[in-house]
Specification:
The chain has 67 residues and is an alpha+beta fold. 27% of the residues lie in helices and 18% in strands. It is built from 2 helices and 3 strands; from the N terminus they run αβββα. It has a 3-stranded antiparallel beta sheet, with no helix packed on it. The longest helix is centred in the N-terminal third of the chain and has 14 residues. The protein is elongated, with a radius of gyration of 20 Å. It starts with a helix and ends with a helix. 1% of the residues are buried.
């Protein structure tokens, strides 16, 4: 019985990452020259968060594409 419990616990623990969602994408704007990039996290010091969140790396609103 203990072996089954441990095995079931291991299987459940390994399957948890399958339910995770990817991080959202944001438009990041350079404070130096105003250039914009699309990334999930800040590119570093000197960047501010612009529009977002977006579902993918194109940083295009999917609702706007349907028009």
């Amino acid at each position: 019985l203990m072996r089954r419990i441990v095995l079931l616990s291991l299987v459940l623990a390994c399957s948890l990452p399958a339910f995770g969602r990817p991080a959202p994408w944001y438009e990041w704007i350079s404070r130096l020259d105003g250039k914009a990039v699309c990334a999930q996290t800040s590119p570093g010091y000197g960047w501010r968060q612009g529009r977002g969140p977006f579902p993918d790396a194109r940083c295009i609103d999917p609702k706007a594409e349907q028009r």
